[in-house]
Write a structure and sequence with these properties.
Elements lengths: L2 H7 L4 H11 L3 H11 L1 H5 L1 H6 E7 L2 E6 L2 H9 L1 H12 L6 E4 L1
Parallel strand pairs: 2-3
Antiparallel strand pairs: 1-2
Length: 101
Amino acid sequence: MKEEDKRNSNEQPLKDVIDKLLKAYSLDHKMKELDVIANWEILMGKAVAFRTKEITIKNRRMRLVIDSSVMREELSHGKQLIIDRVNEFAGFEVINDIWFA
């Protein structure tokens, strides 16, 4: 086998290598949390994103600081829908509860 053939047989797409690295160091979950936060407007729309002042995720619990009591109340009624939407976006369970503040 030529040297070039050996090198080609071990090549992998960079995405696959990064995914394996993140999994090996248990960082894939944290990266998905950050991805959810960065895409909050896409997930929930401009109106909700505008009223959302802070988003944190810790121990699979999302904490949302909403500056409108009316919107906070509305969102609390759709809590499970938000959880489902976030987890579907992430591809696995990133959150299982939401707290509103």
